[in-house]
């Protein structure tokens, strides 16, 4: 984790973004207090396996059937 002031990050923002690309977390400091954190986004390259929850639940046959009138009214605030 790297602490930088607002002046430092304004002088060369690309420098700090490159550090974030290299998996570094940058904390922005104002008046000796941390005000923001710039960190890498977790990798989403690994996909979840197909069928991860297979057999754990079943979709009822009437899943996409129209709602009853009273339930529909409740959703619409009537």
What does this structure look like?
It is a single chain. With 78 residues, the chain is an alpha+beta fold. The protein has a domain of 37 residues. Helices cover 28% and strands 19% of the residues. It has 3 helices and 3 strands. Strands 1-2-3 form a 3-stranded mixed sheet. The longest helix is centred in the N-terminal third of the chain and has 9 residues. It is elongated, with a radius of gyration of 25 Å. It starts with a strand and ends with a helix. The mean pLDDT is 90.
Secondary-structure content class: alpha+beta
Oligomer: single chain
Strand order of the main beta sheet, please?
1-2-3
What is the terminal separation in angstroms? 53 Å
- How would you describe the shape? elongated
Largest sheet: 3 strands, mixed
Spell the H/E element sequence. Answer: EHHEEH
Instruction: Provide the gyration radius in Å.
Output: 25 Å
What percent of residues are in strands?
Answer: 15-25%
Discrete helix count? 3
Which spans of ≥5 residues are poorly predicted at pLDDT below 50?
none
* Annotation, overall tally of beta strands: 3
Average pLDDT taken over every residue: 90
